[in-house]
Amino acid sequence: AQTVTQSQPEMSVQEAETVTLSCTYDTSESDYYLFWYKQPPSRQMILVIRQEAYKQQNATENRFSVNFQKAAKSFSLKISDSQLGDAAMYFCAYRVNVLGGYQKVTFGTGTKLQVIP
Amino acid sequence: DSGVTQTPKHLITATGQRVTLRCSPRSGDLSVYWYQQSLDQGLQFLIQYYNGEERAKGNILERFSAQQFPDLHSELNLSSLELGDSALYFCASSVGVGTYEQYFGPGTRLTVT
């Protein structure tokens, strides 16, 4: 069974600094997708960034980038130039497309990020 | 705004009762997913529908059921409610199955007293 582990329940960062959130996963699949979702106090789930396992290049979206280490099954999120609006719960998620076409998504337990002014 | 709508936003009910949560997917999306997020927990996949047919089941209790209607909206029915069913219930939608992105609705917060 696939599992996703986020070992940091809480993190804090000074405004304008850089922070890295960790995520590891366990799978026997070779073709899958990894995501980071942000959940602010409004509780809306917002997709931050996605990574296809077959791509070696790390995904980047503005101030957000990932360090994808497929062999190590590691998928960390780096937030550069942290802003107050980045304060939220961040969830790492793994998705595999199962035979029959449905998507099985597994979420980690989340990391609560605090941004200090 | 993801384009996925969920009603109601909040629901407070008593143990033993039955409630229905509603989800309207983004325009053009055929697939709907339901997730449960208990307090301080990650999301647990409950069930997926595609174009009216059930496609996958996750950790969904027998007291829970869902359906997707011809107009593609979906309803999640929760019966014989227990205190532990208090959670945030999310609906997500995607264009199809396979590699398509899932877009999440704002969620329905259910409180069972």
Write up this protein.
The complex is a heterodimer of chains A (117) and B (113). Chain A is mainly β and 117 residues long. Chain A has no helices and 12 strands. Chain A has strands at 3-5, 10-14, 19-21, 24-26, 33-39, 46-52, 60-61, 64-69, 74-79, 88-97, 103-107, 111-116. In chain A, the strands form 3 sheets. In chain A, strands 2, 5, 6, 10, 11 and 12 form a 6-stranded mixed beta sheet that branches. A 4-stranded antiparallel beta sheet of chain A has the order 3-9-8-7, with no helix packed on it. Chain A is globular. Chain A starts with a strand and ends with a strand. The mean pLDDT of chain A is 92. Chain B has 113 residues and is mainly beta. Chain B has strands at 5-7, 10-13, 19-24, 31-37, 43-50, 53-57, 64-68, 74-78, 87-94, 103-104, 108-112. In chain B, the strands form 2 sheets. In chain B, strands 2, 4, 5, 6, 9, 10 and 11 form a 7-stranded mixed beta sheet that branches. Chain B has a 4-stranded antiparallel beta sheet with strand order 1-3-8-7, with no helix packed on it. The relative contact order of chain B is 0.33. Chains A and B meet through strand 6, strand 10 and strand 11 of A and strand 5, strand 9 and strand 10 of B.
What's the quick description here?
By secondary structure, chain A is an all-beta fold.
What form of chain B results from the Cα inertia axes? Answer: globular
Can you summarize the main beta sheet of chain A?
Answer: 6 strands, mixed
Low-confidence stretches of chain B: none
> What is the number of strand segments of chain A?
12
C-alpha-based Rg of chain B, rounded: 13 Å
State the assembly state of the protein chains.
Answer: heterodimer
Write down the secondary-structure element order of chain B. EEEEEEEEEEE
Q: What class do helices, strands and sheet pairing of chain A give? A: mainly beta
- Main interface pair? A-B, 25 and 29 residues
User: Number of helical segments of chain A?
Assistant: 0
From the spread of the alpha carbons, the general shape of chain A counts as globular
